C-alpha cells in the first residue's frame, strides 16, 4: 500500500515538473507583440494541456512551479523574460490567471464526459475554452485595468484579438487529448478515469 502511494506521489511530482518545463520550452517560441504592452504566445496552450491532462490540482501546481521559477529570474516567458519585473507589466493579470485557468480547465475536464476519445476531445475543447479564454481573460482584463490603467471597454477590446488564436489552441488541446485517449485508454483526464 505504501509503495503504491509513494509511486503515485512520485508520478505526480514528475508530471508537475514536466508540465512546468514544457511551459518553459514553449516560451522559446517567439511571441507576437500587440499594442499596449500585451502579446500573443503559445504558452497558453501549455496551460490548457496542463489542466486537461493533469487535473485541477496538479495543473495549478505546475503553473505555480513555473511562475516561481520566472519570479526567481529564469527567462522562461516568451521573449526570454523573467524576474519580478514581469509581474509589474500589463500582462501580469494573464500570468497570475494561469493558475486559475489551469485549475478551472482541469476541474471542468474532470466533470465533462470522457467515455470515448471523441467525447474526451470535445470535453477538452470546452474545458479549455472556459478555463483559458473566459477565466484567463477575466484576470488579464483586470491586470490591464489595474496596471496599464486602461478603461474597461478598451481592455475588453484588447482581448478580442486573442480569441481566434486561443480557439485554435483549444482545438490543438482537443487533438492532443483525442490522441492520448486513443493511445492510452487508462489516462486520467482531469484527474479522473474515463
From TrEMBL:
UniProt-recorded Gene Ontology molecular function terms: biotin transmembrane transporter activity
Keywords in alphabetical order: Cell membrane, Membrane, Transmembrane, Transmembrane helix, Transport
GO cellular component: plasma membrane
Membrane-spanning intervals of the chain: 12-30, 36-55, 62-80, 92-112, 124-148, 154-177
Membrane topology qualifier: Multi-pass membrane protein
InterPro entries in alphabetical order: BioY (IPR003784)
Record localization: Cell membrane
Superkingdom of the organism of origin: Bacteria
Chief place where the protein resides: membrane
PANTHER family named in the record: BIOTIN TRANSPORTER BIOY, BIOTIN TRANSPORTER BIOY-RELATED
Similarity field: Belongs to the BioY family.
The protein, known as: Biotin transporter
Organism: Comamonas aquatica DA1877
Amino acid at each position: 500500500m505504501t509503495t503504491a502511494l509513494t509511486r503515485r506521489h512520485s508520478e505526480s511530482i514528475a508530471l508537475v515538473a514536466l508540465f512546468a518545463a514544457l511551459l518553459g520550452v514553449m516560451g522559446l517560441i517567439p511571441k507576437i507583440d500587440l499594442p499596449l504592452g500585451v502579446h500573443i504566445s503559445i504558452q497558453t496552450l501549455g496551460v490548457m494541456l496542463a489542466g486537461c491532462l493533469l487535473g485541477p490540482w496538479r495543473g495549478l501546481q505546475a503553473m505555480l512551479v513555473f511562475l516561481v521559477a520566472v519570479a526567481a529570474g529564469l527567462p522562461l516567458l516568451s521573449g526570454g523574460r523573467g524576474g519580478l519585473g514581469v509581474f509589474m507589466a500589463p500582462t501580469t493579470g494573464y500570468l497570475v490567471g494561469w493558475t486559475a485557468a489551469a485549475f478551472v480547465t482541469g476541474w471542468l475536464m474532470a466533470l465533462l464526459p470522457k467515455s470515448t476519445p471523441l467525447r474526451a476531445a470535445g470535453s477538452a475543447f470546452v474545458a479549455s475554452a472556459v478555463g483559458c479564454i473566459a477565466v484567463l481573460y477575466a484576470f488579464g482584463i483586470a491586470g490591464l485595468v489595474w496596471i496599464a490603467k486602461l478603461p474597461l471597454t478598451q481592455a475588453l477590446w484588447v482581448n478580442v484579438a486573442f480569441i481566434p488564436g486561443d480557439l485554435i489552441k483549444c482545438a490543438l488541446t482537443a487533438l492532443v487529448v483525442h490522441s492520448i485517449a486513443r493511445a492510452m485508454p487508462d489516462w486520467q483526464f482531469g484527474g479522473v478515469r474515463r
